[in-house]
Amino acid sequence: MSVFNLGKDSKKKPEISQTSIYRLFILMACYLGLVALLFNSPSEILNGQLKILTSPSNLITDYFALVGVGPTLFNSALMLIHALIVVKLTRAEINGPILAAILTVAGFSLFGKNLYNSMPIVIGAFAYAKLTLIPSKRSLLAALFGTALGPLVSEITFNMNLPILFGVFFGCLAGFLAGFMLPPIAQHAISFTKGFSLYNVGFTCGLIGTLFTSVLRAMGNEIEPVTLYSSGYNLHFGIILCFLFSLMLLYGLSLNSWSFHGYGRLLQHSGQLTDDFMEEEGFSLALINMSLLGFISVAYPIALGGQLNGPVIGGILTVVGFGAFGKHPRNVIPVLMGVTLMGYVNSFDMSLTSVIIAGLFGTTVAPIAGRYGVLIGILAGAIHFTIVGNTSYLHGGINLYNNGFAGGIVAAIMIPLLEAVDYHHKLKKVREGVNPADVIQTED
């Protein structure tokens, strides 16, 4: 099944209306906006927004460090509303993948995405749908997730020493072309990873980002990843995030008759694309799962002595979003263990933001753990950690989903090997006289 097929029939009766889901996201945007005012004045937020819009925003530009907390949270609120408007215009119903996309947009708006650099990509993705006469909602996920290439627009506009009008024109043109390319390439990329890397569009953005970066470098332009982090906000955001996840947990429990009934069934899913928890198990259980992943994701950087800064909180919100679409504690924790173990084995400073986000975003390969077990999940996390540190140079940081790019490579390497071993294991059982149907049932 295509990751862009949004028309799958629900297996459960909806527990909450689409209107109510929109209201929940609007409330979340208001929450971010109100918290922003606790850190900065309206004038400071406005000035910070202008600086965000004119920043090259390459990976990793922590907007907390660039302009402060208030303007950054306000940018996230704006981008969340923007994502909701885009979804509404396509008339698509919010399901697991769309919910994941909306929260991913909100998370990455803390370090790289803004209205200016996202719009050309969104327009390009929908232009592809218009030209090919397909429903616009089939390009929706490519449009939302594809904003990972926002720094491409900003880099050309503000960091190529072009006159501003030329910079805007060529930056928007590059973003439009990238967005136009995303839907068809992402459609085929899923067969490359077989759905075992959840950030399928992230892998696609890595390919397209590498193409554009190679062209720009061939023209004599230097494009390098950025390292700009903030620190000192652990107490503030520990409280802010845990309060948000507590509300999500309580609301999910209230919708599920104040119980965890059915949650064990959700944990049995492998998470392989397209494993939509919201449609298969219901919104209440998906929300409970998202909240629990939120607590785990906050605890992870704190336990390693890291900082709750823009990229890390972006990683937390992304994990939470995918709690409706492929991730749960049973397949996430082994990957986190693998990344952490590899970090300690190689004597990394585990409190570094680059290490922590490798763990959080590395859960893109969680379906490998969900399908093949804890030990293989740990191995997938360890391999991911070794690869992700070498992929950002290829696209120069203009693909914000660097872990999605690396995760696609991990899945492409591991899955053929795992499937071959699995096949021969089943074949051996059949030769030993075991009924093939029993083998399949046992393995599943």
Q: Please, could you describe this protein's structure?
A:
The structure is a single chain. The chain is globular, with a radius of gyration of 21 Å. The N terminus is likely disordered. It is mainly alpha-helical and 444 residues long. The chain has one domain.
Terminal CA distance reads 19 Å
Output the structural class.
Answer: mainly alpha
**Beta-strand share of residues:** under 5%
* Cα-atom radius of gyration: 21 Å
Average pLDDT works out at 92
Number of strands: 0
As residue ranges, the low-confidence spans are 1-10
Number of helices: 22
What about the largest sheet? Answer: none
| Helix and strand pattern | HHHHHHHHHHHHHHHHHHHHHH
Helix content: 55-70%
Q: How many structural domains?
A: 1
The general outline is globular
List strands and helices in order, with pairings.
Elements: H1 18-39, H2 42-53, H3 63-67, H4 69-90, H5 96-108, H6 115-131, H7 140-145, H8 150-158, H9 164-193, H10 200-218, H11 234-255, H12 263-266, H13 277-281, H14 283-303, H15 310-321, H16 329-345, H17 353-361, H18 366-372, H19 374-388, H20 392-395, H21 402-431, H22 436-443
Helix pairs in contact: 1-4, 2-4, 4-5, 5-15, 6-8, 6-9, 8-9, 9-10, 10-21, 11-14, 14-15, 15-17, 16-17, 16-18, 16-19, 18-19, 19-21
